[in-house]
Amino acid sequence: MARTIIYGASILTLDADDSFYYPGTVEIEGDCIAKIYHGNPSPEVLSDPSITAIDGTDKLVMPGFVDLHFHTSVAKGFGDELPLKEYLEEVWYPSVRALTPERAYIGALHSYCTAIKSGTTTVNDMYRFVGSLADAAAKIGIRAVLSNEVALPEHKLDLLEDNEQSYLQHHGRESDRIRVWLGHEWMCTSNVELMAEVGKMKKKLGTGLHIHLCESQQEIDDIRTRYGRTPVEIAYDSGCLGPDTVAAHCVHLTDRDIELLAETGTSVSYDPGSNAKLGNGIVRLQALQEKGVNVGMGVDAFECENSPDMFELMKFGSLIQRALHQDASLAKPYNILRMATGNGAKALGIDAGVIAPGKKADLIVVDLTKNQMFTPLLKDPPKRKMMLESHLVFGCNGSAVQHSIIDGVLVMKDFKVLALDEEKLRQDMDAMFEEISEDMKSLIIK
């Protein structure tokens, strides 16, 4: 069984006891964390040639990020001035209609590569050609929950039958590192009959559901006009809510909506960057948390955020709540860090998101000397921990992530993803989007 030891590091476990080690050691055996302890292992252990030893001096070990609402991306920086409805019609939907399995594979490789490089170890990816996404995740080493973009046939996205086949063919690949859920695009490309079919399929397959809910005010107004209910109420009536459902966005929620999410144990992905960039509003984060809703964090598509960086997302997600409510005590680093790690893992049913014995070894090593981002930093452990949490949320970015370990495997070493040639991938991505940008022109449906 492969063993990896990271020693002499600051270790931010984010566990239930809020444990912190400085200096400390993490030992990994196979795909799980075996031990965490103060101090260093013996010289005899470190000299064992069968062990991969990583010197953690001036490094921080923490759980990898779980990006709870993610879309593989091909068109970042294209059409940034458009609001949600127009953006979807003129950029997003034409770009995904232009996909082939080969194009989806390149897009997924690029998206997963950039996510890993900024500290993400798990993505909850709703996109098309799930087989291509699974192949990309298998190659690069990321943990992935994958789903199709299910909509009505006239929108030329995916059908529920496509998602069922994705589940049957790809769920559980790579020793369960890759899972397949159902994906429902949103009520504006659906109807109550399709939503009910999604609920039945979810029960039939015994899998989870990734769904967009209540993202824009226009969506709420349209659905209320058509059905006299909110999208959350329709999802509830259709059997689509539950502890194995992740509802993305949830910007415009009624009190009743929040009660239904809490009652069913549905998790919410807080996507503040996307929600702000597309002009959709700000989530009622405190109301959700006060009712006990499990809230994680997601970048959404890079097109909607322009960055895969969960560090940047944590900062913006905290600051926008403080500005909205004029209250500097809200969205503390302690809580935001847990939203971006353990809460996301809980939502996806993954035994990760904290550093503790027996948990999956999905963790990152951050260089505390990188570009002065963590200076100053006290040595006294309690004060050091407090300052590290603050620096991570308010002063850091993904370029400080030096190593990434996923499922016990070192997938990024010294800032380089090991499974591929990053420069070739960049060139492939540029060439592929040249083709897609031309094809998109004929794929707009008014």
UniProtKB/TrEMBL annotation:
Pfam families associated with the record: Amidohydro_1
InterPro entries for the chain: Amidohydro-rel, Metal-dep_hydrolase_composite, Metal_Hydrolase, MTA/SAH_deaminase
Single Gene Ontology MF annotation: hydrolase activity, acting on carbon-nitrogen (but not peptide) bonds
Extent of the signal sequence: none
Boundaries of every Amidohydrolase-related domain copy: 60-410
SUPFAM superfamilies, per the entry: Composite domain of metallo-dependent hydrolases, Metallo-dependent hydrolases
Protein name: Amidohydrolase-related domain-containing protein
Organism: Clonostachys solani
